[in-house]
Amino acid sequence: MKEQLEAIQAEALERISQTEDMKELQDIKVAYLGKKGSLTGVLRGMGKLSKEERPVIGEVANKVRESITAALDEKNEKLELLQLEEQLEAEAIDVTLPGRPVKVGGPHLLSSIVQELEDLFIGMGYEVREGPEVETDFYNFEALNLPKNHPARDMQDTFYITNELLMRTHTSPVQARTMQEYKGEKPVKMICPGKVYRRDTDDATHSHQFTQIEGLYVDKNVRMSDLKGTLDTFAKKMFGADREIRLRPSFFPFTEPSVEMDISCKVCNGKGCSVCKGTGWIEILGGGMVHPKVLEMGGYDPEVYSGFAFGMGPERIAMLKYGVNDIRQFYTNDIRFLKQYHKA
Amino acid sequence: MLVSYNWLKNYVDLGNLTPEQLAAKITKSGIEVEGVEYVAENCKDVVVGYVETCEKHPNADKLNLCQVNVGDQKLQIICGAPNIAQGQKVAVAKPGAVLPGDFKIKKVKLRGIESNGMICSLKELGLEEKYIPTDIADGIFVFPEDATIGENVDELLNLNDAVLELDVLANRADALSMLGVAYEVGAILDQPVNLPDETVSFAEDDAVDNYISVEVEAADLNPYYGAFMIRDVEINPSPLWIRNYLMAAGIRPINNVVDITNYVLLEYGQPLHAFDYDKFSSEKVVVRRADDGETMVTLDDQERILSEKNLVITNGKEPVALAGVMGGANTEVTSETKNILLEVAYFNSSSVRGTVKQTGLRSESSTRFEKGIDPNRVKRAGIRACLLMEKYANGKVAAGAAEFDELDRSENTVEMDTDQINKRLGTEMTSEDIVSILKRLKFDYEQNDTSFSVQVPTRRGDITIFEDMLEEVARIYGYDNLPFTLPQGAAQAGALTVRQSLKRKVNNYIQGVGLMETLTYSLTNATDIKRLVSPEVLEKAVSPVALAMPMSEEHKYLRLSVLPEILRAIKYNSARNQTNLGYYEIGSVFISSEKQVSKQPDEQLRAAGALTGKWLEHPWQQEKKDVDFYLVKGIVEGLFDHLDLNVSFRQAKLADMHPGRCAVIEMNEQTVGFIGQLHPALEKEMDLKETYVFDINLEAVFAAYEDTPSYRQIPKYPSIARDIAFILDENIHSGDVGDLIQEIGAPLVNRVEIFDVYQGANLEEGKKSVAYSLLYQHPDKTLKDDEVEESYQEIIKAVNEKFNAYVRS
Asked: Which of A90, A123, A144 finishes a domain?
């Protein structure tokens, strides 16, 4: 009987190893281990064995069953894996077909620049202040040392609404308002971005509406060299660490001394080219030391406090940095233009 | 201000500086030189020639055959100019010469006869046509008799001169004169300034009083008026050098008397005016305010209607000049003029500015009065002009000047201190450095150790306070030499305000869901000011805010809605085949609650957007989704959800909106905006496809936003979901039913969602089925089935009662 069992085992293991088919494997299982299976058949004859033989043969029979079962399981697992692999192979898709598009929006180029500037100056300890676009003559002009009939008022032709109300021509009134709010009691360190308006006919370089960012720092012992250092930091962050700045004397009614800031031309590296009109320098912004009358009207004693202010146009920065050649592009909102810069 | 390099050399030593190098130095010191232009390109081989003979060309009526002596040779030249004549000294381009425009002169045959060169006009030599005297505009240029035959014309005609274009800002009126520029350049280069000759020889036996007296009735507008008398002048062309300098400075030469007034104007920055004394018809100059409605004809032959605001020069009876702006036609100097009455005056800048604004006449003279002239140079300029008229118009100058004089010529004194300067600039200058700067500027001063008391010359009327002197010192010291430092004040944290952060958050959200940010104009037209204005804005805006003097009808009103401008952008793109668009802008609208605007309007920040065309397109999977109401609504709902704010939508009929596809957005029972489809009539008018819009009052959103929301307990106990479908009349709003479910189910019903809407087969006509999914949850315990069931039945009953709806089985 023992021989019989061993023969069954050998035969079963052989068949299991031969098969590559799930169904056949199932059949093999039934053929040996099922109710009518050959191993089951042999075991049924165990009753006829003697008392001494029975445990011995029983042990052999169990081993045979275990060995067959293990082989079946192992084979089953192997075949299942193969089957899964086949199935996945069949599920393959064309990965080169285009994906389902996701709508992507983005910021306007000028917003990106304003935000970049805001973050830059916030990092230097400035707060961001805003103010009304419809201003009073007082805050737009008088508080900035531009009394009525001042010749420099011609420099910025203004959209008036009434004799006293106007579309602000710069964001400087926000500075005047902030100084008044702080009542000459604490330092002012702020920037003010926003829309401004001038009586200009729209063309490639003029726009009746544009954006501005101005900065103001008022404290005890503010020096002109601080303005120079601050602007240098700004220019290098905004336009690249290899840019140099140059200050030139200029005139603004609200600052004295006044400066115009140039950066070295990126196109020719200061050698002179058509972009910088041969000078090697490109004008970026205006600024200066806050005029004592402006400090006074803002409630700051010019004997105790001094300060600097500066102002720039994001449009100009965009035109220089990204090569936009027509200011109207910013307000036409051509989708092909907006998309070019929405990552900016 | 156009500054001739050659002219400037008369006053200050420019060393070896090229015009470009000089320009760079001037720019760096504070007056921007916008460009350097040469009067003409180099004309080599163009020389003075003497026309020995001039005969008609045998084969051509309009041509002349000339024999011209050019010094080293004689040339036969054919010339077509009408003014050519024997005995003239002319500019001859010899064969081989190259004229501007790369025009090479060669030997040619004209109608069978050889021509060996060309006799040139000023235009052919490269001078700008507008500056060429009109009487020789069409002909060749004739040199004065003393010109040397064979001499190169370059220098004679100042063709090698360079002109620096100075952009003079409002504070530097002093730089509107050659002398002023000379002082500036002298300071920059540390060079002395040579002043022009002012030594006139007055007639010994003749005084100005014999001819004229001066009366000023408006001393406030005219503190100084001086009249000089120059008799027996000979009107001729000016000497070549005056003409050359005037042309370089952009002024067309006319005759010696007019040219001299212009020359001195440019040299001293002091406007002068020459009257023909014989036409003046009185012996008295009276300066007064014009009478309202009084008229006069100015030099340009225009009749001017005057008012009390205009200052006029009169002969005691009628106006003969508009003070500081333009002379009258009735006293104009002509080629017949014999006796000159020369005016030098100080007119108040605001008076001249007023007249200029009113008449639109802006001239070299008025510009200088407007910006302010040097009180100490007024009379000197008159004397200088007399000298030149004596020399170059053979005039006899009557002794003295008839004057009215209440002019303040005092100098400003500014106190400053070396330490104070260093403290403000961040420099370490010594008092010796300051002294050297003051000397370069040619400012007088008194020094007491580190203190200075500076006497500012009247030519620099812009310097009145310490800060003005600070700028002078800084710019001569050189802005380049200032150190780079950072502020030393106490550090403070910079940050965005809550409102600013929130604005960024809204921007980021809207961009994140796929919309592109636009920037549009705040000023709009009469049609768009009324369009798509949100109801809560319309309610408050009593009248639109309008510009007093708009530049065009297109930009006249301050907008009440951002949408029309966004739609304009969409239309622009659609016309360029860009039809699938999602645009938005965050911008202000301007709401005035006054009938007559007198106060600043309320500036309300709004987020508005418009979507049109296909939102989703995936061609190879045949997926296409047009923009629709629910897309826009989803975006808006998402925004409020993102900000953790509750809003509801109520159907509304608004102007310009599709009457069945429009809703107002409500938050805490206040309208905060609207969404919907544009009215098809408007879409048609604007040539737009189906377009959906939203418009939200961000001020209300910001006000409701909680910066630091308090903690809400995460539910610990399990929830139970129940679904329910109602058969409703199709005109019942699903949302209203949902609201009722929420209301009745509260507080157990945590959430109500619509998951199916059906209309069609198996349903009665006019009915729809709406399925709601309810989520029951209790914060403090596990709900029991019978509690849920009880609430569920209450809901069915309430919905049935209110909407006559029943549960779909």
From this structure: A90
pLDDT tops 90 at residue A121: yes
User: B301-304: which pairs have CB atoms within 8 A and are 24 or more residues apart?
Assistant: B301/B329, B304/B359
Mutate to test the interface with A, among B516, B579, B594, B618 (most CBs of A within 10 A): B516
The per-residue pLDDT for B510 is: 97
Residue A159, domain extent:
109-341
Of B24, B494, B576, the CB nearest to A127: B494
For the cut 60, the answer to whether the pLDDT of residue B700 exceeds it is yes
**Has residue B376 got a pLDDT over 90?**
yes
Question: How close B473 comes to chain A (CA, Å)?
Answer: 10
CATH assignment of the domain containing A206:
3.30.930.10
- Interface predicted TM-score of the whole assembly (ipTM), two decimals: 0.86
The confidence score (pLDDT) of residue B483 equals 96
Q: Which residues 6+ apart lie within 8 Å of B684 measured at CB? A: none
* Chain centre distance of CA B541: 32
Helices B418-425 and B466-477, axial angle in degrees (round to 10): 70
What ranges make up the beta strands (E) of A151-304?
165-167, 188-197, 209-220, 245-252, 255-264, 281-290
Residue A81 sits in the same domain as residue A125: no
CB atoms within 10 A of CB A131: 18
Angle, CA B64 vertex, CA B62 and CA B65 arms, to 5°: 150
Class of domain B720-807: alpha beta
Q: What is the CA radius of gyration of chain A?
A: 43
B762 DSSP assignment: T
Taking CB atoms and an 8 Å cutoff, what residues of chain A touch B169?
250-251
Question: Can you tell me the distance from the alpha carbon of B727 to that of B467, in angstroms, rounded to the nearest whole number?
Answer: 82
Classify residue A101: in a domain, yes or no.
Answer: no
Determine whether the interchain pair A118/B496 forms a contact, defined as Cβ–Cβ distance below 8 Å: yes
Q: How many angstroms separate the CA of residue B468 from the nearest CA in chain A? A: 6
Q: Which of B180, B192, B191, B187 is nearest to B474 (CA)?
A: B187
> Does the pLDDT of residue B136 top 80, yes or no?
no
Cα–Cα distance, B527 to B231 (Å, whole number): 67
Per the CB < 8 A criterion, the answer to whether A312 and A285 are in contact is yes
Whether B370 and A136 lie within 8 Å, measured CB to CB: no
Distance CA A130, CA A117 (A): 15
CB hemisphere CA count around A140 (13 angstroms): 26
B499-704 CATH pick, 3.30.70.2760, 3.30.930.10, 3.40.30.10, 2.60.40.1190: 3.30.930.10
CB contact under 8 A, B522 and A217: no
Within 8 A of B583 by CB-CB distance, chain A residues are 333
> How near does any CA of chain B get to the CA of A90, in Å?
20
pLDDT above 90 (res B678): yes
Q: Closest to A161 (Cβ–Cβ): which among B426, B545, B582?
A: B545
In angstroms, rounded to a whole number, what is the distance separating the alpha carbons of residues B727 and B808?
A: 6
User: Which of A90, A124, A149 delimits the end of a domain?
Assistant: A90
Tens of pLDDT, residue by residue over B296-333, are 999 999 999 999 999 999 999 999 999 999 999 999 99
CA A20 to chain CA centroid, Å, is: 56
Q: What residues are paired with B699 via a beta bridge?
A: none
